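Hello, quick one for you while I still have it in my head. Could you read through the record and tell me how the tokens relate to the sequence? No rush at all, and the record is pasted right below.
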Amino acid sequence: MGRMNDGFSTTIGFADYPAVSFWEKEVTPPGIQGGGENDTSTMRNTVWRTKAPKQLKTLSECSFTAAYDPVVYDDIVAMIQTNQLITVTFPSGATVAFWGWLDDFTPGANTEGEQPTADCTIIPSNQNASDVETAPVYTAA
């Protein structure tokens, strides 16, 4: 088992809009959260408050900063809030695929001498197009 020594090149693909080109400059893959604790303390505890883990997990937001072509504005409008399969590809070729939607596309300032970029946020839905709970899938390279 190895480790990533460099984040280059991590990319994001959208199944319903494969022709929309983002040129990723920075990618933050989704994280996994347990949701905290359930307090299980009762009046029968004697010294310690007790806790138990919650049963459900959360796939946290994914974000990226990318260069873009303004010609894709109409496609981006269509992508916003469209639940679809999204794939993050890591430098090794390993992938994590999950259902979610592009929630935010915020262009940065256009400045002379700098490449324009946009900050984007993806929210995982964890349910497929049929509204069936669907876990993220990791696939090794």
Notes: Residues 73-79 form the longest helix (7 residues). The CA atoms of residues 104 and 121 lie 5 Å apart. The mean pLDDT is 96. Helices lie at 73-79.
